[in-house]
Description:
Layout: H1 3-18, H2 23-35, H3 40-53, H4 58-69, H5 75-88, H6 93-107, H7 129-145, H8 149-158, H9 161-175, H10 180-191, H11 195-205, H12 211-225
Amino acid sequence: MGGHVDEALNMLEKQCCNSASVLPIRARAALLEHFDGNNSLLLRSCFEDMLKKDPTCSDALAKLIKMHQNGDYSLESLLEMIALHLDATDAEYNTWRVFSSCFLRLSSYEDEHKQHCALNKTPKLFTDGISGKSWRLRCRWWLTRHFSNRKLESEIEAGDLQLLTYKAACASYMYGWEYSYVTKAYSHLEKENGNELLLFLDEYRGNSFGIYQKFQKKFTHFNIRI
């Protein structure tokens, strides 16, 4: 890159560190995309920083999804960034579709990412360290944030079967196949003859982590021992 571009990038990097605004990061990402579009390391760092400062940034998330599809961004990192985005927004069906596919693919990692999967099929991402604590809190919060009966009823009333399906797929991973949001969504799809969407949900039936139940069992066992 030319000297003026490097100078502009360095100036914007300093502004990124000193500003709570996402605008300097946006400007830096735009410059990088135009002049150094193959620098996936810096680009993904920019898009991640944008989401961390403003989790509602759907355009930054879309860029990370595209980078993942091109093999330049890891599955685990994408799952975390989508979750961060969903902490702050309700999101449309496509975001939930990608989120559910991350869960499905993570459950099938046996070779290259075998170290992330325990015998109970729950990846360490959801159980260990700071990430595990974050997912435990998120699972509890999202019971009312995204998967309450009120949310379910409003989504059924809106008639968005795709949103209902992909959210139910995610809920099955987080809370188990028997969780009320999942079973009620499935029943509604049956009534609406949503056969293709039912087939999609059926694929998730045998791959449900039930992360939240495992958290509860773990801490119940811990309290009993104490």
